[in-house]
Design brief:
With 343 residues, the chain is an all-alpha fold. The chain is 85% helix and 0% strand. The two termini are 32 Å apart.
Length: 343
């Protein structure tokens, strides 16, 4: 028997779709947080299923959410602690760079440059106003940031708790042919999310391992500090530890250490920055997600450019879904062609 939709069924679907669109628009400023929580919940599902063998679903979801919170805040606290413990050393480096800049400025003292006092005063006023606006913007954003954190952890908890049930409820009521296609796309999405998060952390750990011998050979001491900072910077999308290498190169030039500056440029950047970020990360992600590393890079850059930080997750995910949909379409067309008898 072929199922047909009545007028009431269509109106019900339209009503539900309208409510969903209205809710999405109403909560649009929080959608990036909710989507981020959903993507992390997908990665945390194996841990949740493992914990469910010993605890109830609610307790397991709570423990999984606490694990994510401890990991996030623990990493942030660890980074702040490392920077604070080495603040004196960092101050010395910054002081050396400033002293070097001032020494270069002293060579230009005899060059007659006249700048009207009004322009200097106006420039200073503009800088003070810009800094005040930036600082007040950060302060005004703190309440919304707290709300975002609350929504994030609540969404993460409910997605972990109800994720398997929601998937089963939807898949059990779909026709078998559609169900197979959605299952394949779901597997592609899950593999891509695992590749994004797990490979991202693995790349950071690998950067730490590569950084230790490099900074040891560099000879500036504080090897563990520099290596940890390189690993932490690797967690920042696209930028990676390149900013750290640039900072060290400027410091080397400021003290006249041309050998170390060249060592950073021709050894440190290719091995510690470019190799893990440009080669290994797309390669490992492409293997897990079964798509080309080039497409993964398109997803990364395109997602960040269009959607901001959440695009780091959604960009590769959308690319993976497009690739999966393309393969499914080709197979459907192939089956349809084989089913038609040739004249």
């Amino acid at each position: 028997m072929t199922a047909t939709l009545t007028r009431i069924d269509i109106l019900t679907i339209v009503l539900i779709a309208g409510i969903t669109v209205a809710a999405t628009l109403a909560f649009w400023p929080l959608m990036s947080v909710i989507i981020l929580a959903l993507s992390i919940a997908v990665v945390m599902m194996p841990i949740h299923r493992l914990l469910c063998t010993r605890f109830s679903g609610a307790v397991s979801a709570g423990l999984s959410t606490m694990f994510v919170g401890i990991l996030l805040f623990g990493s942030l606290a660890f980074m702040v602690t490392i920077i604070y413990q080495n603040s004196t050393y960092l101050s010395e480096i910054v002081g050396s760079i400033i002293a070097s800049i001032r020494s270069y400025e002293s060579d230009l003292i005899n060059i007659p440059i006249t700048i009207p006092q009004e322009q200097v005063a106006e420039w200073l006023r503009d800088q003070i106003v810009s800094f005040s606006d930036y600082l007040s913007g950060i302060i005004r954003g703190i309440p919304f940031l707290i709300v975002q954190l609350i929504i994030f952890f609540l969404s993460l908890y409910i997605f972990i708790l109800r994720g398997d049930d929601l998937r089963s409820e939807v898949m059990d009521h779909l026709p078998s042919r559609i169900s197979r296609a959605i299952t394949r796309m779901t597997e592609m999405a899950v593999n891509t999310l695992y590749a994004i998060y797990v490979v991202h952390i693995a790349t950071s750990i690998l950067t730490f391992i590569l950084a230790i011998p490099f900074f040891y050979l560099l000879g500036y001491d504080h090897v563990l500090f520099y290596s940890l900072m390189a690993a932490i910077f690797q967690l920042i999308p696209i930028i990676g530890p390149s900013m750290l290498m640039l900072f060290i190169a400027i410091y080397a030039l400021s003290i006249g250490d041309l050998r170390s500056a060249a060592f950073v440029a021709f050894v440190g950047y290719p091995i510690v920055c470019a190799f893990p970020d440009v080669y290994l990360r797309p390669l490992m992600m492409g293997k897990r997600a079964s798509i080309s590393p080039v497409l993964m890079w398109i997803g990364f850059f395109g997602g960040l450019a269009v959607m901001g930080i959440v695009g780091f997750v959604l960009g590769p995910l959308f690319v993976a879904l497009v690739v999966s949909g393309y393969h499914i379409l080709i197979e459907e067309l192939k089956h349809a062609r084989e089913a038609i008898p040739l004249d």
